[in-house]
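To: structure desk
From: M.T.
Subject: fold request, one chain
Message: Could you run this one when you get a chance? Sequence is below, nothing fancy, just the single chain.
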Amino acid sequence: MKKIIVLIALMAARIPVGFSAASELTAQATFLSSADISTLLKRMPSGASTDQPLRIIDGGAANVGIFVVRRPQEPDEGCTIEHDTLVNDKTTSIFLVLEGAGTIVTGGKLVQPAPVRSNDPDLKLLGSGSRGSGIQNGQSRRITAGDVVIIPPSVPHGFSAIEKSITYQVVRIDSGKVLPLKSSSAAQARGISPFACDRLALSPEIQKRHFDVVGPELLKLTKSARELEDGYDFEFPVDEKTFRLLSEWAMQERLCCPFLDISLRFEREGGPLWLRLAGRKGVKEFIKIEMAQGGIKL
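Reply: Done. Structure tokens follow.
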């Protein structure tokens, strides 16, 4: 993981920078800790396709971003070349495989190319280019943890096979400046957040309190849990201190995990206090993984 951070610095340093007033404001190094990356990996659902931006900065002549991508084996996730073949026209992508294995096809000719539309939900995640239905005369190579693939613009690429799943970091250098800055993503642009906690949405001080103080305290206070179709209800003691902790936690959690539906409810006639966490497909599994890490088995 440390290698990829160095790689961003080296690649960004070679991009000519026009020092306008706007670029001077972002003319600084960007660092991501191994803890940030490890936490994101633990929170990514194993069975869902996810492309999560960690940081996207203005490098002057290009926007430079680092992402973590997980692709499952299931064909209906659209992760192999029959469904997801791409050629970028202004983006260089650098893959570093973290976990799993797969066969990537690069080069050759894109079959039935069609430009990525301006309303394509992945445009601001991948950059401009064309999609296709396959690759002709490409080169196939099996890649595993530790392998690096550098894909310049105009090179078709896609996976022909995925073995259970594959997870990799991607540095994307977008000279077209389509990638949105900071930690935003195409998913957020279309109103759909990826299943991963964005710790960087919180200030360092709030991060520390949220994850090291409030969260662990609420885990200790959890009395019971009940399963719902799209999530879980968690029971808490009915007292003012607990309610304040839950309210504080919910206000911060909605920023770092915007895909969650969060609600607090008192039952009538002096009943218990419930925290409900729910959401779209995949959220329930995410909650289950999170709670297991905190020692609560659902």
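Reply (cont.): The longest helix spans residues 204-221. Let me know if you need anything else for the meeting.
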